Amino acid sequence: MGSRWLIRLYLDREGGITLKDCADMSRLIGDILDVNDLPPGPYNLEVSSPGLDRPLTRDKDFFRFKGSKVKIRLRDKFEGSRNFKGILSDYIKEGDGGIVVIESDGKIYRLPKDNIFKANLDYEI
Description:
The protein is α+β, with helices and mostly antiparallel strands. It has helices spanning 19-35, 59-64; strands at 5-10, 43-48, 69-78, 81-94, 97-104, 107-112, 116-121.
């Protein structure tokens, strides 16, 4: 980032992250970096959480958010569609891959994880 370092830190935990958590961690990490003169020279420190529309990419993401609303876009069509919205009802680990099970409009879809282009939590404001 030009002549300044950029240090980006994402926080996450069960129950979520608050603005106070980000501010507290920013002060703590900033103090540690300053005392140890890391990085050398000026820097910008960004501390945030993945947010409400966080991407789901890892097996543990799919396990963790069972029961949540999700939006999924596939690489290749499945039953005539690439886009699915519904409740993440299960995740089944199979070898190196997995099956994402969602319920949408009263139907159950078993989507191969390796066909998922993008998966996010879906929220309504």
